[in-house]
Write a structure and sequence with these properties.
single chain; alpha/beta; Rossmann fold; Dihydrodipicolinate Reductase, domain 2; seven-stranded mixed sheet; six-stranded parallel sheet; 10 helices; 13 strands; globular; Gfo/Idh/MocA-like_OxRdtase_N; NAD(P)-bd_dom_sf; nucleotide binding
Length: about 325
């Protein structure tokens, strides 16, 4: 299998290393707007370099394409790949806006070519266990859900204006994993945001702290909290409380919370610093799954239609925050 990869930044380089190590991959071709950066990643992996990223979209150029470039080019590479009959993996988001995401979804459906969008939490062992525990009845009737996503340090100022905002950039992972674990759909969102840190969030029209209340289609209440500033460490958790038990994802020995209870020493290790170490096994698992998708062995674990549902929740949260009112998903769903 010949695999192309566009975008050799931090995540792209990590995905490239996983792909290059697979026996089924006979050739890995890297491309980046900065050709020197692509060559630096390619050399230790024994990969080749395409000087023009667009060349990977030529029919027959590669058997599968991985897109880890900047958000602004995601839609173009997804559409270009499926039109050329090339299965494609793309990190979220599909596109910068809801409208553009809908257009990509239509193009993908028309082409009938597999697309896998990178929501890596679906491949994390904790979330996988929680999903199965809910389906097996271990939790009993689900009563409430709580999710947290908090970065230890904020992104660079230059990133924020193009990020899409805290709900679209960060919490979209919470919205996707909520749907995947519970098997339910969000019907209403009430969200708030605040600025507690650097001025560049305000200047970009964004917030750096968030809280939201979501209502699922079976009336289950879900709370979501987040921050760009969490000095204790990188904190990603999910609680599912039911009639029989409560399951907690992310409550490991590196969770960045110190117990205030006398005699309790938890956690016992240095906290997670950022997202890659926390989810490294999940990132590898999702890339291996994509190679199976490209080989025709399995269906896409998270296609564009699935990603669109998370986008709709993120859009509703952002609109709710700005208009200070509950927003129903039905208001935003395309006809």
């Amino acid at each position: 299998m010949r695999v192309g990869l566009v975008g050799t930044g931090r995540i792209g380089a990590a995905h490239a290393a996983v792909v290059a190590a697979q026996p089924a991959v006979t050739e890995l071709v890297l491309a980046d707007a900065d050709a020197a950066a692509a060559r630096a990643v390619a050399e230790p992996l024994g990969a080749s370099v395409a000087e023009d990223p667009e060349s990977l979209l030529a029919p027959g150029a590669v058997d599968a394409l991985v897109v880890t470039a900047s958000t602004s080019v995601h839609a173009g590479f997804i559409v270009g790949a499926v039109r050329a009959g090339i299965p494609v993996f793309c990190e979220k988001p599909v596109a910068p806006t809801l409208e553009a995401t809908v257009e990509v979804a239509r193009e993908v459906e028309k082409a009938g070519v597999p697309v896998h969008i990178g929501f890596q939490r679906r491949f994390d062992s904790g979330y996988t266990y929680a999903r199965q525990a809910l389906r097996d009845g271990h939790i009993g009737q689900l009563h409430r859900v709580h999710l947290v996503t908090a970065d230890r340090t904020p992104p660079p100022a230059a990133y924020v204006p193009t990020s899409g905002g805290l709900f679209r950039d960060c919490h979209i992972h919470d919205f996707d994993i909520l749907r995947w674990v519970t098997g339910r759909e969000v019907v209403e969102v009430t969200a708030l945001g605040a600025n507690r840190g650097a001025a560049y969030f305000v200047e970009s029209g964004d917030v750096d702290n968030s809280a939201a209340l979501l209502v699922l289609d079976d009336a289950t209440l879900v709370t979501v909290q987040g921050s760009r500033y969490n000095g204790g460490g990188y904190d990603v958790r999910m609680e599912l409380a039911g009639s029989d038990s409560t399951i907690g994802v992310g409550y490991d020995d590196k969770m960045p919370i110190d117990s205030a209870e006398p005699g309790v020493r938890f956690p016992g290790q240095e906290a997670w610093d950022w997202f890659w170490p926390r989810f490294a096994p999940a990132y590898e698992a999702e890339m291996l799954a994509f190679l199976r998708v490209a080989a025709g062995e399995i269906d896409s674990p998270c296609d564009v239609a699935e990603a669109l549902e998370a986008v709709l929740v993120a859009e509703a949260a952002d609109l709710s925050m700005r208009e200070r009112r509950p927003v129903r998903i039905a208001e935003l769903r395309p006809a």
